[in-house]
Amino acid sequence: xxxxxxxxxxxGDEIPLLxxxxxxxxxxxxxxxxxxxxxxxxxDLDFARKARMPDVFAHGMxxxxxxxxxxxxxxxxxxxxxxxxxxxxxxxxxxxPTCTGQVVEKFEADGEKRVxxxxxxxxxxxxxxxxxxxxxxxx
Length: 139
What we know:
Elements: E1 18-19, H1 25-35, H2 45-50, H3 60-74, E2 80-87, E3 98-109, E4 112-122, E5 128-138
Antiparallel strand pairs: 1-3, 2-5, 3-4, 4-5
Protein name: MaoC family dehydratase
InterPro entries: Fatty_acid_synthase, HotDog_dom_sf, MaoC-like_dom
Domain MaoC-like: 19-115
């Protein structure tokens, strides 16, 4: 990981995107085990259909974890000062999550140089599933 310098960043810059593999049943099962979230709507087709869903779907927090990964591939975790997200859609099986971030502000706070990022996780059709912002300290 290269060190991101505050002086090299401009408002409007995009951080490297994170494009993942299509969500499948294995992804969901592995996330259940890792997170401890065994809600049957994410792993049991019959349960999902009884809830009037066409199939199981991804945990919202899985996409939130992807946004965390987007940030920590750009800077070390210790530099993340704030992460806030809002769930805006359901990630269905077969969706390809793509996470992006764009610098929207540069500022100083608490003696640190920081940037505010607009972040999002969308599917291959450009439909947002999570949107939010992050604040990151830079050197």
